[in-house]
Fold this protein.
Amino acid sequence: MYSELVESQREYFKSGATLCLEKRKETLQKVKEMLQENKEKLSKAIYADLHRDGGLEVDKTVEEADLAIRKLDEWAKPIPFANGERFVDGEDDLFMVPEPLGVVLVISPWNYPCICSAPFISALAAGNTAILKPSEIGAHFAAAIAEAAEGRFDKRLFAVVQGGVPETTELLKEHFDHICYTGNPGVARIIMAAAAKNLTPVTLELGGKNPVLVTETADLADAAKKIVVGKVANCGQICLAPDYILTTPETKDSLVKELVNAFESYGTLAANQENARIVNQNHYDRLNRVLGASKGHVLYANQEKADREEKFFPPRILEVEDGDALLKEELFGPILPILTVDSFDKAVRYIQDHDKPLGAYVFTKDEEQAKRFIKLTSSGGVSVNDVMIQGSTRLMPFGGVGNSGMGRIKCEWGFRTFSHEKPVVIRNKLGPKVKPLVGF
């Protein structure tokens, strides 16, 4: 079904057409212009899918393309090694040369459909060809990005493929040189199995049950405000969103009071565009099922009326015990369970005993507690006295570990993920000097 498209991209790659840095910059400029010229269309599509403004998300994706244009020469430079090996002549040159992998498939999710499609920008910057497969759940965005790309790019270089599970299944039958998927562990296992047939490397960004440990020394008002932002923004449908809270019985009541104040400070959530909506009725029903299966005690329920037709799901706080239904799967919605533990050490042990999350958060004024949390817990990334912030800077990579994913993306880190850094030794005594090697 997609053999012709993939083979045409492979032949285009083999021709060397993607190697020139100036040509790559021209392609990235076209990506930037595509996003800028279609910002209103893409924003409206995101609103149609999620009932929130998508303008900032498009702007952030433009920034990633712009950064790649400005930094490409620097990223693509061969990395020299000091010649200290006895068996290598003192006049020889040793380098790591970044080279593109080939044909890259990027499968993006629905929750932040534009910024989570940005790995295709990194793939193109690294000199690959790319196929983008947006999520069918965000159908309006998928159609909008496909329409925006149509006729603007040579499909041998970049193409957008729409469709659902059947189309993705057919795509995965093809031989790619790298697959990047953002989504959930269940689908990731299917992708890994398909990739294994061709020994195709994968990058997986999978989310998880991100814990928030609130200690007795924390600024509770500050902690509550930041935690609630993570549950209100995009209606909690963020891979880095705080999933559940760990705290001590002595701290719980005061913390809950601050959490309620933080939720109530938003006013009418149904009218707040930061809150968005649950993406579809299937996900709305999933949240209701897990809530119904919980034996937790409701500590706060927003008084606005839940509306399945409008997919409006008001937030709730529940006190739960270990093993509760709300602690078994990533919630991806505005439900906030609180599990009380006897001590900081038991909270850390609880996190250690469960799958490694994409984000782990601790609120404390105790320096030693912060250090121990960072050292003793394993996660894709950590924020101390904040949530999600480690995923917001362009200077740092974004990625998971264990059940929350593998590999790194974003800006220079994405460039390196979609490159092979090839060791090169040049025997200068045996031929003409080739320095400088930049642009090799």
Remarks:
- The CA atoms of residues 203 and 407 lie 5 Å apart.
